[in-house]
Specification:
The protein is mainly β. Helix content is 11%, strand content 49%. The longest helix has 13 residues. The radius of gyration is 15 Å and the shape is globular. The chain starts with a strand and ends with a helix. The mean pLDDT is 88.
Length: 153
């Protein structure tokens, strides 16, 4: 039987990524981010979300892509991910957010295994939507390992 899951689809450069709806708390318009000294390059700083300081990571930089300035479509996706010490709330800056969509987990392809040194640990699978590839992110692996450092910021 098909295992259908809902995902929020995000655009970064010309690529489409998917984040499980169960991890997404809210989607915010871009806003001012308070920088912190000596933070890693992909850690943009913190924002205030209803009285809580939320660290924000740049998805482009986290995935090894070139940086890009904000546009009118830039969004911050507030997520709850699992770190080694428990759940952590953080924001993820994306070029744009498309929609909530359904993907069949039985039809997700595994990440390609063409190079043993390539870090595919953050990819849950590759799906297809409207003729395009959609990379389903494993947010706990992608963000959870660094979340303890960010939560201390």
């Amino acid at each position: 039987m098909a295992d259908l899951n809902q995902y929020v689809t995000l655009g970064v450069a010309e690529e489409i990524f998917a984040a499980p709806v169960t991890k997404v708390q809210e989607i915010l318009d871009m806003r001012a981010i308070s920088r912190l000294p000596r933070a890693p390059e992909n850690f943009l700083g913190i924002i205030d979300v209803r009285g809580q300081g939320v660290p924000v990571l740049d998805l482009r930089l986290t995935l090894g892509m070139d940086p890009k300035g904000d546009t009118e479509t830039t969004r911050i996706v507030v997520l709850c991910v699992q770190s080694p010490t428990g759940p952590v709330t953080l924001g993820l800056r994306a070029d744009r957010v498309f929609e909530v969509t359904v993907l069949d987990s039985d039809e997700l392809d595994p990440p390609p295994s063409f190079n043993a040194r390539w870090q595919d640990h953050c990819i849950e699978g590759i799906g297809r939507r409207n003729g395009n590839f959609v990379t389903v992110l494993d947010l706990d692996k992608l963000l959870g390992s660094g979340a303890d450092i960010l939560s201390a910021a």
